Amino acid sequence: MSLKSPVITVMTKAAGKAARHLKRDFGEVENLQVSRKGPADFVSNADLKAEKILREELSHARPNFGFLMEESGASEGDDTLQRRWIVDPLDGTTNFLHGLPHFAISLALEERGEIVAAVVYDPIKDEMFTAEKGNGTFLNDRRLRVSSRRRMDEAIFATGIPFKGLEGHERFLDEVREVMAVSAGVRRWGTASLDLAYVAAGRFDGFWEWGLQPWDYSAGALLVREAGGYISEIGGRSLSSKSPNLVCANTNLHRELDELLRKSRKA
Protein backbone atom coordinates (compact mmCIF):
# COMPACT_ATOMS: atom_id res chain seq x y z
CA MET A 1 0.00 0.00 0.00
CA SER A 2 1.27 3.51 -0.85
CA LEU A 3 1.56 6.22 1.76
CA LYS A 4 0.24 9.31 0.04
CA SER A 5 2.50 12.35 0.23
CA PRO A 6 1.01 15.79 0.89
CA VAL A 7 1.22 16.73 -2.78
CA ILE A 8 -0.48 13.54 -3.98
CA THR A 9 -3.16 14.09 -1.35
CA VAL A 10 -3.75 17.60 -2.72
CA MET A 11 -3.94 16.29 -6.28
CA THR A 12 -6.28 13.37 -5.57
CA LYS A 13 -8.58 15.58 -3.51
CA ALA A 14 -8.81 18.13 -6.34
CA ALA A 15 -9.41 15.41 -8.93
CA GLY A 16 -12.10 13.83 -6.79
CA LYS A 17 -13.98 17.10 -6.35
CA ALA A 18 -13.89 17.92 -10.07
CA ALA A 19 -14.91 14.35 -10.90
CA ARG A 20 -18.13 14.59 -8.91
CA HIS A 21 -19.31 17.37 -11.22
CA LEU A 22 -18.14 15.53 -14.33
CA LYS A 23 -20.09 12.44 -13.34
CA ARG A 24 -23.21 14.52 -12.74
CA ASP A 25 -22.87 16.18 -16.14
CA PHE A 26 -22.09 12.86 -17.81
CA GLY A 27 -25.46 11.61 -16.60
CA GLU A 28 -27.10 14.49 -18.43
CA VAL A 29 -24.82 14.52 -21.46
CA GLU A 30 -27.63 15.12 -23.94
CA ASN A 31 -28.47 18.41 -22.24
CA LEU A 32 -24.95 19.83 -22.25
CA GLN A 33 -24.32 23.03 -24.15
CA VAL A 34 -21.48 22.35 -26.53
CA SER A 35 -19.42 24.74 -28.63
CA ARG A 36 -16.96 23.94 -31.40
CA LYS A 37 -13.33 24.54 -30.44
CA GLY A 38 -11.75 23.11 -33.59
CA PRO A 39 -12.01 20.23 -36.02
CA ALA A 40 -13.52 17.30 -34.09
CA ASP A 41 -12.29 18.86 -30.85
CA PHE A 42 -15.13 19.94 -28.57
CA VAL A 43 -15.29 21.86 -25.35
CA SER A 44 -18.28 21.65 -23.05
CA ASN A 45 -19.57 23.41 -20.01
CA ALA A 46 -18.51 20.34 -18.04
CA ASP A 47 -14.92 20.72 -19.25
CA LEU A 48 -14.73 24.37 -18.24
CA LYS A 49 -16.41 23.73 -14.90
CA ALA A 50 -13.95 20.96 -14.06
CA GLU A 51 -11.00 23.19 -14.94
CA LYS A 52 -12.32 25.97 -12.70
CA ILE A 53 -12.70 23.56 -9.76
CA LEU A 54 -9.19 22.17 -10.27
CA ARG A 55 -7.65 25.63 -10.43
CA GLU A 56 -9.44 26.71 -7.27
CA GLU A 57 -8.51 23.59 -5.31
CA LEU A 58 -4.86 23.51 -6.41
CA SER A 59 -4.41 27.26 -5.96
CA HIS A 60 -5.83 27.08 -2.46
CA ALA A 61 -3.42 24.31 -1.48
CA ARG A 62 -0.34 25.70 -3.27
CA PRO A 63 -0.94 29.42 -3.97
CA ASN A 64 2.54 30.06 -5.40
CA PHE A 65 2.49 27.41 -8.12
CA GLY A 66 1.88 28.27 -11.77
CA PHE A 67 -0.47 26.53 -14.21
CA LEU A 68 -0.53 25.10 -17.71
CA MET A 69 -4.15 24.25 -18.46
CA GLU A 70 -5.75 22.98 -21.64
CA GLU A 71 -8.57 25.51 -21.76
CA SER A 72 -7.10 28.63 -20.14
CA GLY A 73 -3.42 28.29 -21.08
CA ALA A 74 -0.33 29.14 -19.03
CA SER A 75 -0.03 31.38 -15.99
CA GLU A 76 3.19 31.88 -14.05
CA GLY A 77 3.49 31.49 -10.29
CA ASP A 78 6.14 32.94 -8.01
CA ASP A 79 7.42 29.63 -6.64
CA THR A 80 11.23 29.57 -6.33
CA LEU A 81 11.40 25.99 -7.71
CA GLN A 82 9.36 27.02 -10.78
CA ARG A 83 6.68 24.49 -9.92
CA ARG A 84 3.49 24.44 -11.94
CA TRP A 85 0.43 22.27 -12.39
CA ILE A 86 -0.21 20.79 -15.85
CA VAL A 87 -3.93 20.12 -16.10
CA ASP A 88 -6.31 18.42 -18.50
CA PRO A 89 -9.71 18.66 -16.81
CA LEU A 90 -11.41 16.26 -19.21
CA ASP A 91 -9.23 14.04 -21.36
CA GLY A 92 -11.54 12.19 -23.72
CA THR A 93 -14.02 15.01 -24.29
CA THR A 94 -15.41 13.41 -27.45
CA ASN A 95 -16.04 10.15 -25.59
CA PHE A 96 -17.76 12.12 -22.83
CA LEU A 97 -20.03 13.98 -25.22
CA HIS A 98 -21.06 10.77 -26.96
CA GLY A 99 -21.93 9.05 -23.71
CA LEU A 100 -18.91 6.73 -23.81
CA PRO A 101 -17.74 6.04 -20.23
CA HIS A 102 -14.01 6.34 -20.90
CA PHE A 103 -12.48 9.69 -19.94
CA ALA A 104 -10.21 11.06 -17.23
CA ILE A 105 -8.85 13.98 -15.28
CA SER A 106 -5.09 14.34 -15.76
CA LEU A 107 -2.89 16.30 -13.33
CA ALA A 108 0.89 16.61 -13.30
CA LEU A 109 3.25 18.64 -11.12
CA GLU A 110 6.28 20.01 -12.93
CA GLU A 111 9.35 21.24 -11.06
CA ARG A 112 12.05 23.05 -13.02
CA GLY A 113 10.91 21.39 -16.21
CA GLU A 114 10.65 17.87 -14.79
CA ILE A 115 7.43 16.01 -13.92
CA VAL A 116 7.64 14.90 -10.28
CA ALA A 117 4.05 13.89 -9.43
CA ALA A 118 1.07 12.64 -11.41
CA VAL A 119 -2.59 11.74 -11.03
CA VAL A 120 -4.87 10.30 -13.70
CA TYR A 121 -8.40 9.68 -12.44
CA ASP A 122 -11.12 7.76 -14.26
CA PRO A 123 -14.29 8.80 -12.40
CA ILE A 124 -16.62 6.25 -14.00
CA LYS A 125 -14.50 3.25 -13.01
CA ASP A 126 -13.23 5.01 -9.85
CA GLU A 127 -9.63 4.24 -10.80
CA MET A 128 -7.08 6.67 -9.35
CA PHE A 129 -3.63 6.25 -10.89
CA THR A 130 -0.86 8.07 -8.99
CA ALA A 131 2.91 8.38 -9.21
CA GLU A 132 5.76 10.36 -7.74
CA LYS A 133 9.31 10.47 -8.99
CA GLY A 134 11.26 7.68 -7.31
CA ASN A 135 8.27 6.24 -5.45
CA GLY A 136 6.52 4.06 -8.02
CA THR A 137 3.10 4.00 -9.64
CA PHE A 138 -0.11 2.97 -7.89
CA LEU A 139 -3.73 2.25 -8.75
CA ASN A 140 -5.99 2.86 -5.77
CA ASP A 141 -3.02 2.08 -3.45
CA ARG A 142 -1.94 -1.07 -5.35
CA ARG A 143 1.58 -1.00 -6.81
CA LEU A 144 1.72 -1.26 -10.60
CA ARG A 145 4.29 -2.65 -13.04
CA VAL A 146 4.33 -2.62 -16.82
CA SER A 147 3.82 -5.92 -18.59
CA SER A 148 6.71 -8.36 -18.94
CA ARG A 149 5.83 -9.61 -22.43
CA ARG A 150 8.76 -10.04 -24.78
CA ARG A 151 7.01 -11.15 -27.99
CA MET A 152 5.31 -8.68 -30.30
CA ASP A 153 2.81 -11.32 -31.41
CA GLU A 154 1.53 -11.56 -27.83
CA ALA A 155 1.36 -7.79 -27.26
CA ILE A 156 -1.55 -5.34 -27.54
CA PHE A 157 -0.78 -1.72 -28.35
CA ALA A 158 -2.82 1.46 -28.09
CA THR A 159 -2.68 4.54 -30.29
CA GLY A 160 -4.57 7.67 -31.27
CA ILE A 161 -6.07 8.45 -34.67
CA PRO A 162 -5.48 11.97 -36.05
CA PHE A 163 -8.62 14.07 -35.76
CA LYS A 164 -10.61 15.20 -38.76
CA GLY A 165 -8.99 18.27 -40.28
CA LEU A 166 -5.48 17.39 -39.10
CA GLU A 167 -2.67 15.91 -41.14
CA GLY A 168 -1.38 12.41 -40.65
CA HIS A 169 -4.15 9.98 -41.62
CA GLU A 170 -2.12 8.18 -44.27
CA ARG A 171 0.89 7.94 -41.97
CA PHE A 172 -1.33 6.60 -39.22
CA LEU A 173 -2.78 3.90 -41.49
CA ASP A 174 0.74 2.86 -42.51
CA GLU A 175 1.77 2.61 -38.85
CA VAL A 176 -1.26 0.56 -37.86
CA ARG A 177 -0.67 -1.77 -40.79
CA GLU A 178 2.93 -2.37 -39.68
CA VAL A 179 2.06 -2.91 -36.01
CA MET A 180 -0.98 -5.09 -36.65
CA ALA A 181 1.07 -7.35 -38.92
CA VAL A 182 3.27 -8.45 -36.01
CA SER A 183 1.18 -7.90 -32.85
CA ALA A 184 -1.89 -9.32 -31.12
CA GLY A 185 -3.82 -6.15 -31.87
CA VAL A 186 -4.16 -2.37 -31.78
CA ARG A 187 -6.71 -0.45 -29.72
CA ARG A 188 -7.89 3.15 -30.11
CA TRP A 189 -9.86 4.31 -27.05
CA GLY A 190 -9.56 8.06 -27.41
CA THR A 191 -8.02 9.09 -24.07
CA ALA A 192 -4.23 9.38 -24.10
CA SER A 193 -3.85 9.75 -20.34
CA LEU A 194 -5.67 6.46 -19.77
CA ASP A 195 -3.77 4.75 -22.59
CA LEU A 196 -0.55 5.63 -20.75
CA ALA A 197 -2.03 4.60 -17.39
CA TYR A 198 -2.99 1.25 -18.92
CA VAL A 199 0.57 0.74 -20.14
CA ALA A 200 1.72 1.40 -16.57
CA ALA A 201 -0.81 -1.17 -15.33
CA GLY A 202 0.27 -3.80 -17.88
CA ARG A 203 -3.13 -3.74 -19.61
CA PHE A 204 -1.57 -2.41 -22.81
CA ASP A 205 1.97 -3.40 -23.75
CA GLY A 206 2.73 -0.12 -25.47
CA PHE A 207 1.31 3.11 -26.86
CA TRP A 208 2.19 5.66 -29.49
CA GLU A 209 0.67 8.88 -30.77
CA TRP A 210 1.64 11.95 -32.78
CA GLY A 211 0.70 15.57 -32.13
CA LEU A 212 0.07 15.46 -28.39
CA GLN A 213 0.13 18.44 -26.01
CA PRO A 214 1.85 18.51 -22.58
CA TRP A 215 -1.46 18.19 -20.74
CA ASP A 216 -2.22 15.04 -22.75
CA TYR A 217 0.81 13.04 -21.63
CA SER A 218 2.74 14.70 -18.76
CA ALA A 219 0.98 12.77 -16.00
CA GLY A 220 0.77 9.53 -17.96
CA ALA A 221 4.45 9.60 -18.88
CA LEU A 222 5.44 9.60 -15.21
CA LEU A 223 3.01 6.73 -14.52
CA VAL A 224 4.79 4.68 -17.21
CA ARG A 225 8.30 5.52 -16.02
CA GLU A 226 7.58 4.81 -12.38
CA ALA A 227 5.97 1.48 -13.33
CA GLY A 228 9.19 0.40 -15.04
CA GLY A 229 8.31 1.30 -18.63
CA TYR A 230 10.30 3.25 -21.18
CA ILE A 231 8.96 6.33 -22.96
CA SER A 232 10.60 8.47 -25.61
CA GLU A 233 9.93 10.53 -28.67
CA ILE A 234 9.14 8.49 -31.75
CA GLY A 235 12.61 8.09 -33.20
CA GLY A 236 14.31 7.46 -29.87
CA ARG A 237 15.15 10.91 -28.51
CA SER A 238 14.43 11.69 -24.87
CA LEU A 239 10.92 12.89 -24.14
CA SER A 240 10.57 16.53 -23.06
CA SER A 241 7.72 18.91 -22.33
CA LYS A 242 7.93 20.02 -25.96
CA SER A 243 7.76 16.52 -27.48
CA PRO A 244 4.44 16.08 -29.32
CA ASN A 245 5.17 12.58 -30.62
CA LEU A 246 5.76 9.73 -28.21
CA VAL A 247 6.11 5.98 -27.99
CA CYS A 248 6.23 3.85 -24.84
CA ALA A 249 6.33 0.20 -23.90
CA ASN A 250 8.08 -2.13 -21.52
CA THR A 251 11.84 -2.26 -22.00
CA ASN A 252 11.56 -5.51 -23.99
CA LEU A 253 9.29 -4.11 -26.70
CA HIS A 254 10.03 -0.37 -26.88
CA ARG A 255 12.83 -0.52 -29.44
CA GLU A 256 10.95 -2.88 -31.76
CA LEU A 257 7.79 -0.77 -31.63
CA ASP A 258 9.77 2.41 -32.29
CA GLU A 259 11.57 0.79 -35.23
CA LEU A 260 8.25 -0.29 -36.74
CA LEU A 261 6.93 3.26 -36.53
CA ARG A 262 10.05 4.66 -38.17
CA LYS A 263 9.90 1.98 -40.86
CA SER A 264 6.31 2.88 -41.71
CA ARG A 265 7.31 6.51 -42.29
CA LYS A 266 10.06 5.53 -44.73
CA ALA A 267 7.87 3.15 -46.70
From TrEMBL:
<dbReference type="InterPro" id="IPR022337">
    <property type="entry name" value="Inositol_monophosphatase_SuhB"/>
</dbReference>
<comment type="similarity">
    <text>Belongs to the inositol monophosphatase superfamily.</text>
</comment>
<keyword id="KW-0378">Hydrolase</keyword>
<keyword id="KW-0479">Metal-binding</keyword>
<keyword id="KW-0460">Magnesium</keyword>
<dbReference type="InterPro" id="IPR033942">
    <property type="entry name" value="IMPase"/>
</dbReference>
<protein>
    <recommendedName>
        <fullName>Inositol-1-monophosphatase</fullName>
        <ecNumber>3.1.3.25</ecNumber>
    </recommendedName>
</protein>
<dbReference type="Pfam" id="PF00459">
    <property type="entry name" value="Inositol_P"/>
</dbReference>
<dbReference type="InterPro" id="IPR020583">
    <property type="entry name" value="Inositol_monoP_metal-BS"/>
</dbReference>
<dbReference type="InterPro" id="IPR000760">
    <property type="entry name" value="Inositol_monophosphatase-like"/>
</dbReference>
